[in-house]
Design goal:
The complex is a heterodimer of chains A (95) and B (418). By secondary structure, chain A is an alpha+beta fold. Chain A has helices at 28-38, 43-46, and strands at 3-6, 20-23, 26-27, 57-61, 64-65, 75-76, 81-86. Helix content of chain A is 16%, strand content 26%. Chain B is built from 16 helices and 13 strands. The chains are: A alpha+beta (95), B alpha/beta (418).
Chain lengths: 95, 418
């Protein structure tokens, strides 16, 4: 068993268009490092200059937003399902 | 030349061609439509707009579609009501209601965004449209899909009010009732995303969809005699509308249409049971904290607002403020608007009226400031919440003796409501 990770469309160019990939148990933070090792370049979309998750990136573990769990320290066990979702955002302020 | 030049990321500035995408590939930031102002400016004027159709399409030159509207031709141009009696209650002499509770055809402001999104969907060549919705958007997508001959897939939380469910099914849409709250529906739709090749109006078409709401702001200014109001109070769910009203006012100013610029302060209204945006503003937080919604104001029960940052930014930039109200105040607000102005709004409107009352009590408005309350939905869709909360009917026989007796003894409805 491993972690199943659902990859959003904008990131599939890093995963050879794979919709789901697998990774090892650990935490959300270790998962993100592992994704970068497996798919170099993917982190640029997920992390800001300080190495923190970008504010428009939503991460869910077993359908729960990690901001209701332990954020990047949320523990991932074998069999867990992770989904990375861009915030359903849009629009524009004044120029 | 096309009106829309392309899409641009609000976070990092990366540019994309006009296409059905909503997030930046590089940073996941939201994309916005870049209009070609050099092309647009010479061909718009106050006179041309004033001579246009009595709908949101009088502003066609300023909306991000290229051809004429193909669905929703009669949306918008709703009344701006001078609210004398409500104003008297709140101590305001220039209070107005922008009443999208009577928008055509589905009685909410969502008809504006859907008319824009589905016109654009057709330009992109889609034959199937979809949305994640708390109800009003579901109604509007289903109705406009019927009008335009699109196939529609509508995703709603399973606990939605019956009026909003029936008001979607009637138009022949496929309705997926998801066992979860709106944020879960939204996540599912984001995951489904491009998988089925649908135009998700509030996902992949979101940049075009959102700009339909600019017309709410344009109309307020035109109806005030080409002036921006001093204050606008807006209910916040995903956080898009408040920013688009402000964007609309500022575009009018840039075009030189307004007397006196844009002094407007924008105010966000939420229910305490779902208040991520107002809480962040009131606590001067940089980041909003998502919430698990628990409120009867279901149409604005979004705990993880997609445009939360944009809403916060709009309020702060304009010098406005935010507040949230209790469940009891939601009902009080519905009743207050009903008995003073004869307008029956849904729960979101109850929130907005009650928050306006709170803001007035806090002294945020001068007595003669022009204050506009954005009423975005119709109370007939959420009748459940007022059942048992109003006065009683008075049962009588069809004769004058019975009427006389009732008038003499019964506590009548008006008294009970007072």
């Amino acid at each position: 068993m491993a972690i199943q990770v659902l990859i959003p469309t904008p990131l599939r160019k890093f995963t050879n268009n794979q919709e789901t990939v697998t990774a090892s148990a650990g935490t959300v933070a270790t998962l993100i490092s592992e994704l970068e090792t497996q798919f170099p370049g993917i982190n640029r979309s997920l992390l800001d200059d300080k190495g923190e998750l970008r504010r428009f990136v939503n991460v869910y573990v077993n359908e729960e937003d990690i901001r209701f769990l332990d954020r990047e320290n949320t523990v991932l066990n074998d069999g867990d399902a992770v989904s990375i979702v861009p915030a359903i955002a849009g629009g524009s302020a004044i120029n | 030349m096309a009106k829309a030049l392309g899409l641009k990321c609000r976070e990092c500035g990366e540019e994309y061609p006009v296409s059905p995408v909503h997030v930046c590939d590089l940073c996941f930031g939201p994309l916005e439509v870049q209009l070609n102002w050099e092309e647009i400016t010479p061909r718009v004027s106050r006179d041309k707009i004033a001579a246009g159709p009595p709908s949101m399409w009088r502003y066609h030159d300023l909306l991000p579609v290229e051809g004429p509207p193909t669905v929703g031709k009669n949306v918008g141009w709703t009344p701006l009501v001078k609210a004398e009696r409500l104003g008297h209650e709140l101590g305001l002499t220039n209070l107005y209601i922008k009443n999208d509770a009577v928008n055509h055809p589905t009685l909410s402001f969502k008809d504006r965004v859907v008319a824009c999104a589905l016109t654009k969907a057709r330009e992109f060549g889609y034959d199937t449209v979809a949305c994640a919705s708390t109800g009003n958007l579901a109604n509007s997508v289903a109705a406009h899909a019927a009008e335009g001959g699109f196939t529609a897939y509508v995703f709603i939380p399973s606990d939605l009010e019956q009026g909003k469910v029936l008001g979607t099914l009637i138009y022949g849409a496929n309705v997926l009732s998801v066992s979860g709250n709106y944020d879960e529906v939204n996540r599912l739709c984001a995951e489904a995303g491009g998988k089925y090749g649908w135009a998700f109006v509030n996902i992949n078409l979101r940049p075009f969809y959102g700009d339909g709401s600019k017309s709410f702001g344009y109309e307020i200014a035109e109806q005030l005699g080409w002036r921006a109001p001093d204050h606008v109070v807006v209910p916040c769910a995903g956080g898009s509308l408040i920013s688009k009203i402000y964007k609309g006012l500022n575009e009018f100013d840039k075009l030189g249409f307004l007397e006196g610029g844009v002094p407007t302060k924008m105010y966000a209204a939420q229910a305490k049971g779902c208040s991520p945006i107002t809480t962040a503003i009131k606590t001067s937080a940089e980041v909003f904290r998502p919430q698990k919604p628990n409120t009867i104001a279901k149409s604005i029960a979004i705990g993880n607002p997609a445009d939360g940052y944009l809403a916060m930014d709009t309020v702060r930039r304009s010098g406005g403020w935010a507040d949230d109200c209790t469940e009891e105040e939601v009902l009080d607000g519905i009743r207050l608007l009903g008995r003073t102005e004869g307008i029956f709004t849904e729960t979101a409107g109850g929130v907005t009226v009650s928050v306006t009352k709170r803001l007035a009590e806090q002294g945020r408005f001068k007595k003669d400031d022009v204050v506009v309350i954005a009423i975005t939905g119709n109370g007939l869709k959420t009748q459940e919440v007022v059942v048992g909360q109003l006065g009683q009917t008075v049962a009588i026989q069809p004769n004058l003796a019975s009427l006389d007796a009732a008038l003499g003894t019964e506590k009548l409805l008006a008294a009970a409501l007072g």
